[in-house]
Fold this sequence. Notes:
Elements: H1 7-20, H2 32-48, H3 52-73, H4 81-96, H5 103-126
Amino acid sequence: MSPRPTFQSLRAQALSVLQTDYALPLREPLQQHDVETLDAMTVKALELGANAYDIAAIFMAFHMHERIKWALDLNQLVCDDVPHYYPMMRRGFERTCDLMAYPSIQENNLRQVEELKAVLDARDRMN
Length: 127
């Protein structure tokens, strides 16, 4: 049985997955909101036995959900990063799904983002 990962090692692994499999251009030092999000997700992952691939999927889904929700709630045009990062989220998920400890949870998160994006796309087609 392999030793349980430490907070720092799991966080570093998750950041690496985000940078490589999701092609997310994150560099240390991270922006404060990214630090807080990644740290909170790492703590929860350690509690639940999730791994770096789960953290990366949750991180991407969370950020996409928040950006899309922001655009809908404020009736703003979608910010440029949604069309840019959405395909990155999909590709990263497809690359790492088989490596996740909880793929069904991540699939559900992805589905929720896709549903919200469909609402945004429908709204934007109306305008």
